[in-house]
Design goal:
The complex is a heterotrimer of chains A (277), B (432) and C (322).
Chain A: H1 7-30, H2 35-38, H3 50-59, H4 64-96, H5 102-113, H6 117-130, H7 137-145, H8 148-161, H9 164-172, H10 177-206, H11 209-214, H12 223-231, H13 241-261, H14 263-276
Helix pairs in contact in A: 1-13, 3-13, 4-7, 4-8, 4-10, 5-8, 8-10, 8-14, 9-10, 10-14, 12-13
Chain B: H1 5-21, E1 35-41, H2 46-56, E2 60-66, H3 70-83, E3 90-94, H4 98-103, H5 123-130, E4 139-151, H6 152-157, H7 166-179, H8 193-202, E5 208-211, E6 214-217, H9 222-237, H10 248-255, E7 261-265, H11 268-275, E8 283-286, E9 300-308, H12 315-327, H13 329-337, H14 365-374, H15 385-402, H16 405-426
Parallel strand pairs in B: 1-2, 1-3
Antiparallel strand pairs in B: 3-9, 4-7, 4-8, 4-9, 5-6
Chain C: H1 15-20, H2 28-54, E1 57-61, E2 71-75, H3 79-86, H4 90-121, H5 126-137, H6 144-155, H7 161-168, H8 182-207, H9 212-219, H10 224-252, H11 256-261, H12 274-284, H13 288-317
Antiparallel strand pairs in C: 1-2
Helix pairs in contact in C: 2-13, 3-13, 4-8, 4-10, 5-8, 6-8, 8-10, 9-10, 10-13, 12-13
Chain lengths: 277, 432, 322
């Protein structure tokens, strides 16, 4: 496959990369500026105040920002973890078993993909309030445990990567259904499940509406809600642009790190699903 | 059983979580029992003010939950009220939201619990929490009388004085913009309904009113028409800007000296310091430009009361705390110096002796503010202020974009109709 | 459900006998499904049902509405729906979203397909390919709220580097957030955020295509372009269809971007998109009943559009499942 290189392809790809990186580059530069410079110097001229800004952000209400970061990690990590397990179980059942009501269940779950989160947030709040669970970690975690999209993907991966013969063999060996699931199915679905985990992780990390509605105590906020609060403090408070820009930069870093580490899974994964079936 | 392990696990989880969620209520209302109150506020450093109370009242411990500002806090409170749980015990409530909150049965009448506070507040603020009735729906915390802020250096360069009347303001706006087409004396911000309301209030409008058993709505009255036509005229001429405030662009304009004046309220120094720190020392505060120089008047932008919610189980203790917070001399001093608010209580003048840091060169800052507070015209808010405000946002957004004075005055008719329709649809008695 | 498994499309025969041997074992599948179903009912079905119920209710105020007992919830029939549909702002907001979708979906998927094909064609240095793939995918990691904030800065003439560039070149800087530009401004954020994700989906589908399928065409001297057009695109069509459907759903739900840009501009009204109207009714006007009615309308429209589309293309694109 030693094809000749094409300058057109290279140019197009680099243009695309530049387009995608531009705002990231901007936030990097902007967070190096002092409050005054942010609104006075040339937009793309960097400055030297990055660490001052981080220190100032960290000092805001005794390091509340880092608490938000930890909360976000908790919501996204636990939420995506549990959601992945639940999706794997459901996806496995839907892909590898025949049972009454299967297509009904699947269609209903699929319809769930279509419902916007904004619409769900208020009734979810009203229902959770009836059991007194609003304004707790659970209020954000529990609704994120269920991901119709995750189940949909897990079903594809289970169908593609778990050969029925192996299940039969495991059963003949006398392994119980749960043991088979834990020892045979999960490992085989591993790459696919990493994708499901990433999807759900990103979805929770980026979620704004649900925590915004559910939480009254800012010590429980995730990053998105916290940052938006720094911007909208009401007319009598200045919008804290410098802190918000710095906070935005810092909040992107963990996700980028996660993507870079799991990059191999990302691409192998969906492809493997297609080939191995 | 083994087969159903995950189901059992899921159910256990739910039970556990339900138990976790509902653990924070103590049902007793005995006054010498220890109670914990939550307090939603968006004023900066309010936790430090409250710490002084907590130190002295070991049995009534108050926790501050900082909120994102007036609108989100009210949204959350109303949702919690509707849900039947989740509301705090004490809540910061802007004056314009009080009728809405009372109408939603979200804040409690504490006339019986708060003691006699009426004489400690100016009448205007006090009316804001009583709605003209015998009930007391909160204790006034801060007020936001309108004032005018300008770049003294630019005014001097153009040979201008602080405008005494709106005619002066218009002339100054034109002179400044003509001398330097990049400079504007102000902007008409369609995202700040509160400011426009204050300007209408100054001109003598009162958008809502109670007439017997009916509400009246007068958004499209002569006074408001005058204000809308005035600002529309300036925008159409192009001598003031038409962009929203509080944007990065506006911050830039404050920093680079192209936005050289701001019609704002007493809390403006905090915003200016946060948005354009480097321009410190160049600004001056002045009383509002007047429609009638002989009868000085002003309006208000912002200002809030502290209310006790209807979901509290400790109404008495909450009312005690609220009364202390907004009338005790120690609390007033903390409010003014730590939380940076302009306390509504009349006694506050004694603690506000030195000007805010951003206006360090202007020793008479709080004298001007006190004059403005006194000259604030009466204004009645209705139960659907948010409907009127979002209608303002949409209608005036279009008008500002079109830069046509006629569009400004027509927008008032839209606001009036939207507001009345909404009230009628909900079943309020509306006259006319 | 025949439509749902795009990645299995390239799957050759073995699927069929496997299906026949799928287990039939009493309660086991239900036990595996149970946690998902319980959570689905609690956090999706119940809230949706509750929203449906709310959409048929309204609050009736009596008199001045200031006493604590002056508010009662009553049945509203379909009046909330009637009000929602007859709201003069509703149709324009639907039209806006339609126009937005017409801009976003083809642009985003076109770019995603282009980049995926370029990456797959392997015609650049490996480092360039790797770098671009990561770079283009990166915006997916940026929450829409943050992305809109960043782009907001880049749009506003006074703080934008583009405006500086224009001025340096001697032109007047265009105001992107003006009445004609806002739609494009919002669309750009969506394209920026979504292209990389779709590119990865298409790219992985392309990687699954056995090279033998087009190696011979290549040897016969077919150009990369015609290989892409005649062989690769038809093979990844199922992936394209699915990305199309999910993009369509995301389009109809556009909310965070215009909501974040709104305070920066006069041109984004509180009812700029249907979901913003839901937000305004629920959170600004405190009328959750009207919000619920509009929500139900949006959910139905999404449902009809996406399933309708799947039905339309389904027969041809997904004719292989069981």
């Amino acid at each position: 496959m030693n094809l000749r290189r094409s300058p057109v392809a290279t140019t197009l790809l680099l243009l695309g990369a530049a387009y995608c990186l531009l705002p990231v580059l901007w936030v990097l530069i902007a967070s190096s500026k002092s409050a005054g410079e942010l609104f006075s110097t040339f937009t793309l001229a960097p400055s030297v105040h990055l660490f001052d800004n981080i220190a100032e952000l960290s000092g805001y209400r005794d390091g509340l920002y880092w608490r938000w970061m930890a909360n976000t990690a908790l919501y996204a990590g636990i939420g995506a973890g549990v959601s992945t397990l639940i999706s794997a179980m459901a996806g496995y059942a839907l892909a590898k078993f025949e049972f009454r009501g299967k297509s009904f269940v699947f269609n209903v779950i699929l319809a769930g993909v279509l419902v916007p989160g904004v619409i769900l947030a208020i009734p979810q709040y009203l229902l959770l309030a009836k059991v007194g669970m609003t304004n707790t970690y659970w209020a954000v975690l529990l609704p994120s445990f269920i991901s119709p999209y995750g189940i949909y993907l897990a079903r594809i991966f289970a169908a593609a990567s778990v050969p029925t013969e192996i299940l039969e063999a495991s059963r003949i060996d006398g392994a119980g259904d749960w043991r088979t699931f834990g020892r045979v199915v999960l490992p085989m679905m591993r790459t696919g499940l990493v994708t499901v985990f990433l999807f759900q992780f990103v979805a929770i990390w980026n979620n704004f509406m649900l925590p915004y509605i559910m939480l009254g105590d800012d010590k429980l906020y995730p990053i998105t809600v916290g940052l938006s609060g720094l911007l909208n403090q009401g007319a009598s408070q200045p919008a804290m642009y410098t802190s918000v820009v710095t906070g935005a930069l810092l909040s992107i870093i963990p996700l980028i790190a996660l993507f870079l580490t799991l990059q191999r899974y990302w691409q192998v994964d969906l492809a493997a699903g297609g080939v191995k079936a | 059983m083994k087969k159903f392990a995950p189901l059992v696990a899921a159910l256990t989880l739910l039970t556990v979580t339900a138990a976790c969620g509902s653990s924070d209520d103590d049902t007793s209302t005995e006054s010498n029992e220890k109670v914990a109150l939550t307090y939603w506020s968006w004023a900066p450093n309010m936790d430090k003010v409250v710490a002084a109370w907590n130190a002295k009242n070991p049995n009534i411990q108050v926790t501050v939950n900082k909120q994102d500002g007036g609108d989100p806090a009210v949204t959350k409170l109303l949702t919690a009220i509707k849900a039947g749980s989740g509301a705090p015990d004490v809540m910061q409530a802007e004056y314009q939201k009080i009728p809405t909150l009372v109408s939603a049965d979200a804040i409690a009448d504490i006339a019986g619990e708060a003691g006699s506070l009426k004489d400690k507040f100016p009448q205007g603020s006090w009316n804001g929490v009583t709605l003209g009735s015998e009930a007391v729906y909160g204790v006034p915390q801060d007020s936001g009388p309108l004032m005018f802020f300008y770049r003294a250096d630019i005014f001097e360069k153009n040979g201008l004085q602080a405008p005494k009347t709106w005619d002066d303001y218009a002339a100054a706006a034109e002179k400044i913009h003509t001398a330097n087409p990049k400079q504007y004396l102000g902007t008409f911000s369609a995202t700040d309904a509160g400011l426009f309301t204050g300007l209408a209030q100054q001109a003598g409008a009162s958008w809502w009113g109670v007439n017997g058993d009916s509400w009246t709505v007068n958004i499209n009255d002569a006074a408001t028409q005058k204000v809308a036509a005035y600002w529309g005229g300036l925008v159409e001429k192009g001598v003031i800007d038409n962009k929203p405030m509080y944007t990065p662009e506006w911050n830039t304009a404050l920093n680079d000296g192209t936005q050289v004046g701001w019609v704002s309220a007493v809390w403006a120094p905090g915003v200016l310091e946060g948005s354009a720190k480097d321009t410190k020392g160049k600004w001056k505060a002045a009383p509002m430009p007047q429609w009638d120089a002989a009868g000085p008047a002003t309006g208000a932008w912002g200002g809030s009361a502290t209310s006790v919610t209807t979901q509290t189980k400790h109404k008495k203790q909450a009312a005690q705390f609220v009364a202390w917070l907004n009338s005790d001399p120690e609390a007033l001093k903390l409010l003014a110096t730590t939380a940076n608010v302009y306390p509504a209580a009349t006694a506050a003048t004694s603690v506000l002796t030195s000007p805010p840091a951003f206006f360090a060169d202007q020793p008479d800052f709080y004298t001007i503010a006190a004059e403005a507070a006194k000259a604030t015209k009466p204004f009645t808010y209705g139960p659907n202020v948010n409907v009127a405000y979002s209608a303002f946002n949409d209608a005036f957004g279009k008008a500002a974009e079109s830069k046509k004075a006629a569009a400004f005055t027509e927008s008032l008719a839209t606001m009036q109709k939207t507001t009345v329709d909404d009230m009628k649809n909900s079943g309020f008695n509306v006259a006319g | 459900m025949s439509l749902i498994t795009p990645t299995r499309i390239s799957t050759p025969a073995p699927a069929a006998p496997a299906v026949a041997r799928k287990a039939r074992r009493g309660g086991v599948p239900y036990a595996f499904l149970a946690p998902a179903l319980v959570l689905f009912v609690l956090f999706l079905a119940a809230p949706i049902g509750y929203a449906g119920y709310l959409s048929l209710r309204k609050v009736k105020v009596s008199g001045l509405g200031l006493g604590s007992k002056s508010r009662t919830e009553v049945w509203a029939g379909l009046s909330n729906y009637a009000r929602s549909l007859s709201d003069p702002d509703f149709l324009p907001s639907v039209g806006r979203v339609a126009a937005y979708g017409v801009i976003v979906v083809p642009t985003m998927l076109g770019l995603a397909l282009l980049f995926a094909l370029l990456l797959d064609a392997n015609r650049t240095r490996e480092s360039v390919g790797k770098f671009s793939r990561v770079a283009i995918f990166l915006p997916y990691a940026v929450p829409a709220v943050v992305a809109s904030l960043l782009w907001g800065f880049l749009y506003l003439p006074r703080v934008s580097p583009f405006a500086d560039a224009f001025e340096a070149a001697g032109f007047a800087a265009p105001n992107i957030l003006s009445s004609s530009g806002t739609l494009w401004a919002v669309a750009n954020i969506a394209v920026w955020g979504g292209t990389g994700f779709n590119m990865i989906v298409i790219y992985t589908a392309l990687r699954a295509v056995p090279t033998s399928l087009y190696e011979s065409a290549r040897i016969d001297g077919a150009s990369e372009l015609s290989i892409a057009w005649r062989i690769k695109i038809p093979i990844v069509m199922p992936s394209l269809v699915m990305t199309f459907v999910f993009s369509l759903i995301a389009t109809l739900q556009v909310f965070a971007e215009p909501m974040t840009l709104k305070p920066l501009s006069n041109t984004i009204s509180t009812t700029w998109t249907p979901l913003m109207k839901v937000y305004r009714d629920a959170f600004v006007r405190n009328d959750i009943y009207a919000a619920a009615a509009t929500s139900v309308i949006i959910a139905l429209a999404t449902f009809i559009l996406s399933f309708g589309f799947l039905k339309l293309v389904g027969r041809r694109a997904f004719n292989q499942e069981d």
